[in-house]
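Practice set, problem 2.
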Amino acid sequence: MTLRPPVEPMLAQAVESVPGPGVLGELAFEQKFDGYRALLFTPTGPNGGFLLQTRRGSLIQDRFPDLLAASDKLPDGLVLDGELVVWDSKAGRLSFEGLQRRTAARGRRSTRALAASLPAFFIAFDVLQQDGSEVIGYPYRQRRLRLEALFALHRLAPPWTLCPMTTDLLKAQQWLESWPELSGVEGVVVKAMSQPYRPGRRDWYKLRRRNTIEAIIGAITGTVTRPQLLFLGRRDAYGDLCTIGRTAPLRTELARLVGGNVIAAEAGHPWEGLRFASAWGSRDILDVTLVRPELVAEISADTAIDRGGVFRHPVRFKRLRLDVTAEEVPLFSPGPAAATG
């Protein structure tokens, strides 16, 4: 049976540590890049064409003429799963914001101009179909060998890239802990070598690279005595308190700790009039209480940050830093630098 879009990709659930081999058997570790999940389809007949599908099923190949131009290097009847990324040559790094610009572009002139300044790459980590035949029932071990053979046989080169994989846990830990921010690697995905590909199932595991930083608590949801979420900021060079993100829901003991120290703000809070979304990119607005921007939180955050310096995912609250004043928190800086210091 030939796969046709939309195809639900297999998904990964976030975990804090690598599952033991007793749970999954022999493990494979793949680098996770900061991009968009995408499935790639090459023609299966004379009337077919190159297709690029998002995780949610939208077709976006018209936004990526550079990938379309390079698709003649790929054999027919192929379906690949991977990560779509773009390279910002001016910044010298992968750019999630650039990827957003490319996927939102309309019109041939606009898409071609962006392709020149923000070239796209497809990082393949799985093969779902080959020569028009499904291989999703094969174990990951066999699918990976097929994928590696595909790249070798057809001498595939950028924009087609083979996702790095290892079965060495120590090497995977190096990817998490030692690779520079400019690499674009935001974590690792853990897969069982014996697993078939299960569309729509969240049976893989992902660990994100994380940094521990300090930030000022500027607002909360819930009550002052029992906060639920914390909204965080850092002051810029002019003394303005800039928002940088929010925490995941606090555990009961941590909510009590913060509630015993946080104080509702008086008039004149720097965030008066601001509205706070329930998630990055969401239009749902939360009911928040502004608090005195005096308490400092130590947080753990992953490396996914937009150009405005805001964390795209909720951060983890670790503890209050009652020994640190708000004036001692490092200054706000937009972009990836906001995750350090």
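Problem 2, part (b): a different protein.
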Amino acid sequence: MKTGPVAALLGLLLLVLTACSGSSEAGERGGEGETPAGAESVDIAIAPGDGATDVATSGALEVTAEHGTLTEVTVTDAEGAAVPGELSGDGTSWRPGEHLANGTDYTVTATGENAGGEEQTRSAAFTTTAADATFTSNWNIADGATVGAGMVLSMTFDTPIEDMAAVRDAVRISAEPHVDVRGHWFGNQRLDFRPEEYWAAGTEVTVSFRVRGVEGAPGVYGTLYEDVTFTVGRSQVTTVDAAAMTMEVVRDGESLRTIPVTTGAPGTPTWNGKMVITEKHEETRMDGSTVGFGGEYDIPDVPHAMRLSTSGTFIHGNYWASGSTFGSENVSHGCVGLQDTQGANDSSTPGSWFYENSMIGDVVEVINSDDDVIAPDNGINGWNMAWAEWGAGQ
């Protein structure tokens, strides 16, 4: 009789303990197996797949996320150089912002998270296709240069380009203050860039050449990957009036000087139009046979010469004509001549003054000449093409 209540009490305690233990285990099992609604694990996919080879330099690389968003994507080559990219607005996809290099190993690491903040990381490695052939690119502005307001960026290529839009879009130009800059193809091996109007004085320009990996023609890829900057130092426009035989130099809106000149003779008039100074030579040889004038002239020491066109138009000093010629008679073979002295050593002459007060990229505009407007690709003279036509259809 004494053991009955004790046994009953022990049995009750055992039942309670067993029940408590059972509830605890069930709760732990339930915590491990449940996922909050809408918080499935993020699923990250990398294309191309890990170990892929012969991958295209454009259009093949993409990282996507399902059931969550991407928080970080890094793509690096074997040297650790990163490939910039852009995340979609909803955070579910990432694509590179430029072409990849040919024949290069890349590693992709992507991290994402679901709605509950749970992170996942995926990685992959791949190799891009090798180039069957490459094309080279050259341009006309030195890194760090200070230029005039008429400067045009001109690129040339050593092989014909078929995908002209892809090559054009791989050249990215930004300016401070901002201005819209567009490219225009002259044929299939020359690409020029300019804004609608002359650059504003003081503009800082950055050019990012991202032609590397661009397939310009089937199997032929670009190699250029470089950044250059230049500054627009001032706005100087010189207007040459061939009829009045004078030229006015205007800098940043202020008239500096009006100078008597001689321009093209009646049989060899000077081009009309806006021309940009592309070269400066304190002295240079001018041989008529190199520009279609046979043996009509060959002057070994032309002073203070500045090139305005590919076809041979210069604005330069002239020591062989009499002083009375300037402002009264047009006698040249198409160049603009200013009074000067032989030897380019007299700083008081108009030719010397203009040379010292000019820079690459300054504009010389000829008006009232008995000739056509110069072609926009004869030199870097694209200012003679209407903005609506510049870049149209490419």
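Answer key, part (b): The longest strand covers residues 119-128. The first helix runs from residue 3 to 33.
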